[in-house]
Amino acid sequence: MTSALTVNDRRQAALDRLADKGVRPPRTRTKPQRATRTPSRLRAIARTDGDSTVRRERLGAPPGTWYGIIAVVAVFVMLGLVMVLSASAVTQANQGNSPYSVFLRQSMWAGFGLIGLVAMARIPYRMWRKFVVPIGLIGVAAMLGPFAPGIGANVNGANAWIRVAGFSVQPSEFLKLAVVILAADLLTRRQHAMNHRSGTLYPLAGIAAVGAGLCLAQKDLGSAIVLGSIVFAIAWIAGVPFTPLATMGALSTAVGAAFVVSSQARLDRFTAFLDPDGTKDHLGWQMSQAAISIASGGPAGSGIGGSNTKTGYLPYAHSDFIFAIVADELGMIGAGTVIGGFAMLVLFGVQTALAAPDRFGMLLAGGIAAWFGVQAIINLGGVTGVMPVTGLTLPFFSAGGSSLFVSMAAAGLLLSVTRRIGVRGA
Asked: What's the mean pLDDT in 6-21?
C-alpha cells in the first residue's frame, strides 16, 4: 500500500509540475536577440522572424536512464536472436528447411528494428503530434488488411496477418504504437478537462473500443487486452477520475468475457490452464511441455542448444513459448535475468514518465512502459501456466518480425523522451 501511495503521489506531483506546460503564451513581436547558453541539458539557437521562432536542439549529456534503456534493449535483442536460433534450428532442419531460416529472417527484422529505433530516438517526440490523424487512419486501415482476399492470412484461427511477397506482417503490433500516440495526444490536449464526457472520455473510450474491437474481430484476444491496458494506463497517468476509469474497465472486462464464452472451443482453450493434468494431452499440451522444459533447466540450465523439448515436443518453441527454452537452456539464473530485465525496462519507463519535460512525453513514456510490462506478464503467465495462453509474443525475444520491429521502434520513442529530461523550453 505504501509503495502504491508513493507512486500515486509522484504521479500527481509530476502532473502538477506539468500543469501549465500545455498553455501557450500569446505571441508577441520581439527584436532578434543573440542566443545565450543555458546550463540545461538542451541548448537552443533561436532565430526570430516576426511572429515565428525556429528552434534547433542541441542536446547535452543524456541521463543515466537513457543508457539503461539502451543496455536492456541491446541485451534483449542479442539474446533473443541467440534463443531464436537455438529454438528453431532443429525443427526447421527436420522440415527440410535451412536450420538458419528463422534466425536469418529474425536478424533481418532486427536490422530494420535498429533503423527504426535510431530514427525514433533522434526525431523529437513532439513531432508525432502533427501526424496523429494520419497515424490513426493508417492504423485502422492496416487492421482491415487481414480481411482482404489474397493478402490476409489465418494462423491458428486468428485472421491477424498480412502476407505480401513472402513477408508476414501483423498489423496489431503497429496499432499498439499508434494507440499510445493517439491517447497521449488526446489527453495532452484535454488536460484541463479530464472529466469532460464528449470532449475527453468518449473519444478516449472510442480509441480503446476501435483498437480492441478490431483485434477481437481478428480473433486476437491477447492484443485486445494489451491495447485496452495501454489506454487504461495512459488515462490513469493523465489523471482521469476513478469513476470513468472503473466504468471503462468494467465494460472492457464484460466485452472480453462475452468474446471468450461466445465459442465453446475458445472457452475451453482459455480455461485449460485451470486443469493442467486433465488437459495435458490436448489443449494443455503446450503448457505441460513448457512446464517440463522449465523444470529441466535447474539453476544453471542445460546450456545453449541443450533443450530436448524444442525438438518437436513443444509447439511454437521459437515464438510464443520461447521463454520455456530460455529457462531450460539458461536455467533459473537466465530466466530470472530476463524477468528482471523487463522489470528494469518498465522502471526506466516510469522514471522517464515522472521526469518528462512535458505532459505528452509523460504519457508516451508511461504508455510504452505499461505496454511492455503488460505484454510480458501475459506471455510469461501463459508459458508458466498461471494465466491463459493468448498467443502474445514476448517482446524482443519471440520470433516475429512485426513484434521485434515495433518493440524496438517503441523503445526508440521512449529514448526520445528520456533524452530530453531536464530540458528548459524544449
From this structure: 74
Q: What is the pLDDT of residues 341-384, one digit of tens each?
A: 999 999 999 999 999 999 999 999 999 999 999 999 999 999 99
CA dihedral 241, 182, 120, 77 (to 10 degrees): 70
Contact by Cβ (8 Å): 211, 227: yes
The single-letter code of the amino acid at 292 is I
H/E element holding 387? none
Q: Provide the 10 A C-beta neighbour count for residue 215.
A: 26
Does the predicted model carry a pTM greater than 0.70?
yes
Mapping DSSP to helix (H, G, I), strand (E, B) and coil, where does residue 420 land? coil
Angle between helices 2-17 and 359-384 in degrees, nearest 10: 150
Question: b or e along 343-352 (b: 16 or more beta carbons within 10 Å of the residue's beta carbon)?
Answer: eebbebbbbb
Domain limits, the chain: 65-418
Assess contact for 329 and 297: CB atoms under 8 A.
yes
Q: Is the dihedral of CA 356, 78, 119, 399 positive or negative?
A: negative
